[in-house]
Structures are given as C-alpha cells and as structure tokens.
Amino acid sequence: MATNGESGQNQTHRHQEVGHKSLLQSDALYQYILETSVYPREPESMKELREVTAKHPWNIMTTSADEGQFLNMLLKLINAKNTMEIGVYTGYSLLATALALPDDGKILAMDINRENYELGLPIIEKAGLAHKIDFREGPALPVLDQMIEDGKFHGTYDFIFVDADKDNYLNYHKRLIDLVKVGGVIGYDNTLWNGSVVAPPTLP
C-alpha cells in the first residue's frame, strides 16, 4: 500500500500530455521525454493548438505532441504531397501534416464535426496553411466509395492518416488500399485501443 507521501509523489510525476496513448509503463518517463525531446521542438502554432485543445471537454481525442512530431517527420521522409486524414477533431495532427507538406501539398480532411475543426482553424490560418486543406464535414465512407467509383483517385495518395471510429477501421482499410499509391503509407491511430483489445470481457 502506498503511503500518503508516495501517493503525492506519484501525482507529481503523472504526465500532463492530453491525448496520451503511450505504452510506456512510467508516466514520469513519458513526461521526461515530452519535456526534453518533444516540447522544445514543437512549432509555436502546434503548441498554441495543443493548449487550445486541452481546454476542450473531449480533449482525450487529440493527437499527442509526440505523435504529431512523428507524423511530421514521417511525411517529410516519404516526401508526401497528396494526403488524406479521416478524423480531424481540432486539427492538431492536421496541422502537423500541413507543416510537413510543400506549399502546393494537399490534405483531404474529413470529420463529422465541423465545430471542433473550427476551434483550430484560426491557428491553421494564422500559420498560413489553410490553403492546403480541403475539409469535408460528414461520414468518410460515402466519400471514399464515391472516390473509388469515380476511378480517377486510384493510387493517388502518398499518405493517409485514420484517427476516427475504431469500429470502422477495417471498412476504411478496404477502401483506402485502392486510394493509396504503391509505396505509400496508411497510418492508423491507437489500433490497440489503449490496451482494451486484451482486456477481460465485461460481465453483463
């Protein structure tokens, strides 16, 4: 059993990152990584959007700062130019993507909630990146089906990031395989669902 002192110490070391999905067992270690490697490299626009998102009641849905920087690095490594994002929320990962793309890069961004996206839009606009984003409000599956039916989008996407309803990940994947180019990348956020995939069954 932890003493009051130990309990207080644990609270002090608990990470402060909203949207934290790390598999690290130590919150103190994760906080150390954030403070020494992630936050010092975070662009000012991303920091501003992260702080705005932290005040939102659904902030657990946001992409964490370390994941945002990983996405940014990955996009640069593959020289991505034409990308897609399914599940935008306030746009933290969207901003990370826009920062990585060339000036004529494009992001097709889809989310069922425009109101959340518009929380981050002023920051994206201030960063001079809004011209890269084609935001569409509504479910993504009908849009994907239409794109496949049109035929002209086959193999045109360098990178696709999915951070939406987990139950539809397989349905997204069946369609996105047709749209991503050979050698392109599809990224799925939190496929382990914070460990729930191996959690004991819930009794009725």
Looking at CATH, the homologous superfamily is: Vaccinia Virus protein VP39
CATH class category name: Alpha Beta
Shape, per Cα inertia axes: globular
Sheet having the most strands: 5 strands, parallel
Average of the residue pLDDT scores: 89
**CATH architecture field:** 3-Layer(aba) Sandwich
Helix content estimate: 40-55%
Sheet with the most strands: spatial strand order: 3-2-1-4-5
Count of runs of 4 or more consecutive helical residues: 8
Instruction: Name the structural class.
Output: alpha/beta
Q: Pick out the low-confidence regions.
A: 1-15
Topology, pairings included?
Layout: H1 4-13, H2 27-38, H3 44-54, H4 65-77, E1 82-86, H5 92-100, E2 106-111, H6 114-126, E3 133-137, H7 140-150, E4 157-162, H8 169-179, E5 180-188
Parallel strand pairs: 1-2, 1-4, 2-3, 4-5
Helix pairs in contact: 3-6, 4-5, 7-8
